[in-house]
Amino acid sequence: MPGDLTLRPLAVEDVPPAEALLDAVLAGRRQARLGETLDVLAPGLAGAGAWDGDLLVGLATWTPPDPAARSELAALAVARGRRGEGLAGRLVEAAADAARAAGAAAQWLVTTNDNLDALRLYQRHGYRLVRVRPGAVDEARRAKPAIPETGAYGIPLRDELVLERDLAG
Question: Could you tell me the pTM of the whole model?
Answer without folding.
Answer: 0.93
